[in-house]
Amino acid sequence: MTGSGTRPQARGLLPPDTTEDIRARKAGVAVLPIGSFEQHGAFLPLVTDTVIACTIAREIAAAYPVLLLPPLTISCSHEHAAWPGTVSISAATLHAVVRDIADSLRRSGVDALVLVNGHGGNYVLRNVVQESAATGTRMALFPGSADWNTARTEAGIQTPAPSDMHAGEVETSILLHAHPELVRPGYESSDFLADDRRHLLTLGMPAYTESGVIGRPSLASAGKGKELLTALVDSFAEYLSLLTEKEAR
């Protein structure tokens, strides 16, 4: 990743549980952070989405009785392939890995899995969750668009959601709050908007931005990042309730 070389595990992003911790907690719901390894402009690291997914998942695990899993750090970032350092796997591979993890958890007694997704390009995760409903496996994808909209409002995010696409106000704010050491100078002057991205999947990000940024990171603040996380943790209660209700039946 870019930046000073600080590793996510050095900042407490990996779960510290032992087998005995998990046995004592009796958590029936696991939380799997899914990030990416892709460009985020000149001021955020390649591992940004993974750090954000891990940060959200860690806050959830601190507030609710869930099993926190280590992250999937490489996913579907093909639209960013033009930038050095970006690494991707296929949608089929990501689908298979998540399904294998869910199956393994079920064999060990954990029957529900929440995918905490930090990368918007992981479209296949919606299909994984959709298919799980037909097989009896309990899964959820978090945060949903409604959760993000609520969080944006409560945090006072100024950039409209369609404009805040990549390395913008939301992502920069979360890192400024949770991991300021990963944010390089320059975000204050890196705003770039490209709201008409109708051919993004065909043309990729280079057709819409030279810097890799689409959003207004200059409006980011640590305070907004804190409020975003607080709102997301609150939203998770509904997901946990749905999953545990089915578990009790």
Automatic annotation (TrEMBL):
| Entry keyword Metal-binding | yes
Q: Write out the entry's keywords from A to Z.
A: Hydrolase, Metal-binding, Zinc
Coiled-coil region list: none
- Show the Pfam families listed in the entry: Creatininase
Task: Name the coenzymes or cofactors required.
Answer: Zn(2+)
The protein's matches in InterPro entries, at most eight in alphabetical order, are given as: Creatininase-like_sf, Creatininase/forma_Hydrolase
The record's comment on protein family reads: Belongs to the creatininase superfamily.
Protein name, entry field: Creatininase family protein
* Organism of this sequence: Streptomyces lonegramiae
